Amino acid sequence: MSIRKLKNYINGTWVDPSGASYIDVENPSTGEIIAQVPLTSREETNRAIELAHQAYLGWRNVPVARRVHYLFKLLALMEDQEEKISRILVEEMGKSIPDAQAEMKRVFENIEVACGMPVLQQGDKLIGASFDIDGEVIRLPMGVFTMIAPFNFPAMVPFWFLPYAIATGNSFVVKASKQVPCTMNYITELIDQVGLPPGVFNLINGDKTVADAFMEHPLVQGVSLVGSTKTCIEVAKKCASNGKRFQAMGSAKNHLVVMPDARMNEVIRNMITSCFGCAGQRCMAASAIVCVGEETYRTVCREFTEAAKKVIVTNPLDPKVANEPMVMGPVISAKAKEFILKMIDTGVKEGATLLLDGRGLVVKGYEKGYYIGPTVFADVKPGMQIHLTEIFGPVVVILKADSLDEAIRIINEHPYGNGASIYTQNGFYARKFKLEVNCGMIGVNVGIPAPVAYLPFGGMKQSQFADIKAQGKAVINFFTQDKIITERYWTEKG
User: Fold this and answer.
1) Reduced to 3 states, what is the DSSP secondary structure of residue 79?
2) 400-405: long-range contacts at Cβ-Cβ below 8 A with a sequence spacing of 24 or more?
3) Burial of residue 342 (number of CB atoms within 10 Å: 0-12, 13-18, 19+)
4) How many other β-carbons are positioned within 10 Å of the β-carbon of residue 291?
C-alpha cells in the first residue's frame, strides 16, 4: 500500500515543494505510517508569502460582507464533513471521537463569530470633536499574517486566527504541525471548494525553517503561535526584533481547587474529564489539584484515584469502545512518551506518593501505540519538578492547602498562569478566587475553563506572550490597524 505524500496549497493550487525531504506521519494509536509530509524550504515559503501579499492587495478592497460570504460557505461544507474531519483528526492525533467532535464545534463557533465582521470591524465616529471638526477611527487590514499550529488541536487552533484574518481583509499562511498535518490538509481541500481568490489562504508544511521564514520575511505583518513557553520566548524575541506583531500562547499548569463544600460526586467526574481528556495533551487540561483541608484532601485522593482506574485506555477508533463515555487514547509520539515517563520517575525520586502508576501499560492489539495510563501523585509540594513542569500527559499531582488563601498563593507563585478553576457552592469563595488568582481563564465549578469563541482565549504570566488574546472580538485588533482621521470642511466661497 502506497503512502500518501502531502502537498502545499499556494496561491489556490496544490503543489509539490521542489527538492523537499519528507518525514512520516504516524497514527500514535497503532504506530502505523499514514502519510508523509514535506519539509518545505525557506525559498518556497518566501514565494508563498509573496503571492499571499499580491492576493492581499486585491482582497483588502473586497467589501466585508462579500468576504464573509466565503466563510458562510466554508461553515456549511465543514459541518457537512464533520464526521470525516473528526476521524482524520483522531487517526493522526489520538484523541477520542467525542473530544474531536468537541474540537470541531469550536471551529464552527469561530467561523460563526468571524461571519459577524461587518459589525465587528466597524470603527468609531465622533461628531464635534472640536469646533467644526469631526474625529473618526477606521480599522484597516495590514497584509500577510501567518500561523504556526500545534499538534494537539490541529483543527481548532488555526481557526482561532484564520477566519478573523481573512474576514478583516488580510491574507493568511498556515504552517500545519508536521506531526498532524492531515486534518488541516483536508480542511484546506474544503477551503479550496469555496472559491476564495488565489493566495488569500495558503497552507505550508514544514518545520523550523518555515517558522523562521514567517518571522523574518518583511512582508509578514504578524505571527500567531501555540507552543511551549520556551518556543514562545524565541518567537517573541525574533518577531519583536523584526518589527512584527505576535501572539505566542505558551505552556500551562492548570490548577483545580476543591473546597470542603464542593459537591464531590460532580467534582470527581468533572475532574476526570479535565485531567485525562486528550490524554492530558491540551493547554487547558487540569494537571494539579489543590485540596483545601485534610478531609477534602483524603477524599479527593481516594475517590479521584478510583475514578481514574476506570478510564478506558485504547485506540479511540476501536469499534468496541464507540459507546464508552470516557476513552483515553495515546500520547502523540515516542518522544513525548519518553519525556512523560521520565517525569513520573522524577516524581517518585522527589518523594511524592504514586497513588496510580500508568507506566508499563500495553494495549492488546495496539502494542506499537504510545500509551500511558492515568497517573496520580499525592503528597506533592509546591516547587517539586512534577508540580512546576508542564508534563503534557495523563499525569496529575494532588496538593493540600490549609485555606483558600494558601491555595491561591500556590497558584499565583507558579510561573504559568493559563487557567484555574474552583469547586465550591460558596459565592464568597468563588468571587475571591475570580479576583485574586493570576490566570487568564478562570472557572467556577468548571473543569475546563476554556471560553466559547465569542470571548477571548489566553493566559497570563509565562503562559502568554502577547497583548492581544486569541479568538472572538479581541483578536480583530491583532489583524487590523487603527487609522485616526481628524477632518474639517469650510464653506465654499460665493
Assistant:
1) helix
2) 400/290, 400/291, 400/294, 400/297, 401/257, 401/290, 401/291, 401/292, 402/292, 402/293, 403/292, 404/257, 404/259, 404/292, 404/429, 404/432, 404/433
3) exposed
4) 26
CB distance 183 to 154 below 8 Å: yes
**416 bridge partner residues:** 461
According to the model, what pLDDT value does residue 46 have?
Answer: 98
Q: What percent of the chain has pLDDT over 70?
A: 100
pLDDT above 90 for 2: no
**Which pTM does this prediction carry?**
0.96
Catalytically active residues are: 283
Query: What CA–CA distance (Å, rounded) separates 323 from 362?
Result: 22
Predicted confidence band of residue 322 (pLDDT cuts 50, 70, 90): confident
Report the candidate in 427, 460, 428 with the shortest Cα–Cα distance to residue 442: 460
8 with 15: CB under 8 angstroms?
yes
SS3 label, residue 358: coil
Residue 361 CB neighbour total at 10 angstroms:
14
Cα–Cα distance measured from residue 275 to residue 273, given in angstroms and rounded to the nearest whole number:
6
Give the fold, CATH level 3, of 8-250+463-484.
Answer: Aldehyde Dehydrogenase; Chain A, domain 1 (3.40.605)
Q: What residue spans define the domains of the chain?
A: 8-250+463-484, 254-444
Report the DSSP beta bridge partners of residue 378.
353
Q: What are the start-end ranges of the H helices in 168-293?
A: 182-193, 208-216, 229-241, 264-276
Q: Write out the CATH class of domain 254-444.
A: alpha beta
pLDDT category of residue 1 using cuts at 50, 70 and 90: low
Tell me whether residue 431 is exposed, middle or buried, using C-beta atoms within 10 angstroms of its C-beta: 0 to 12, 13 to 18, 19 or more: exposed
